[in-house]
Amino acid sequence: NSKSYWNCYDDNRNITCYRYSYYYDNNTNTCKHLGYKGCGGNNNNFPSIFDCLDHCRKTPDPEKPDYQSILSILPQCNDTSNPQKDQSGKGRITRFFFNSTSQECQPVVVSAGDGYFPHMRICVDRCNSKNKELPRCTQPKDAGDLPEGWSCEVDETKYPY
């Protein structure tokens, strides 16, 4: 079974493709299919419904198996939880920390995720943060534009998703 990240259809003249991605709908407190076209758009664009829900949903899902197990290993919400900056410049992991001075949860890019909150929502709920969501979660749906001369053909031997 290969997993496709793009959905393409042919209308007898053109092939149109949309990337499977999701946006957060603030009115319904849920994530919906975005149909990203490839260029532009805004930051309210997540690669999976799970990533979208974990970052933006206002109510955590205590039924989620990982939610209860993660509570015991979360960082504290005090001045000792403020992170050291990753000085290596090699960080690729986005995590979140509670800034005890501003009383807000903030993103940080690190090379190792230990000692940080894995998702914004968990930080907000655990620390009663002043900011209740990431700014990207309040942005409207924007599927972007199709790039000029874009082709939907993919070499499946090279990209076997």
From TrEMBL:
GO cellular component: extracellular space
Protein name in the entry: Putative kunitz/bovine pancreatic trypsin inhibitor domain-containing protein
Signal peptide: none
Family matches, as CDD domains: Kunitz-type
Record-linked SMART domains: KU
Domain BPTI/Kunitz inhibitor as annotated: residue spans: 1-56
Pfam families: Kunitz_BPTI
Keywords noted in UniProt: Disulfide bond, Protease inhibitor, Serine protease inhibitor
Keyword Disulfide bond part of the UniProt annotation: yes
InterPro entries membership: Kunitz_BPTI, Kunitz_BPTI_sf, TFPI/VKTCI-like
Record bears the keyword DNA-binding: no
GO MF terms held by the record: serine-type endopeptidase inhibitor activity
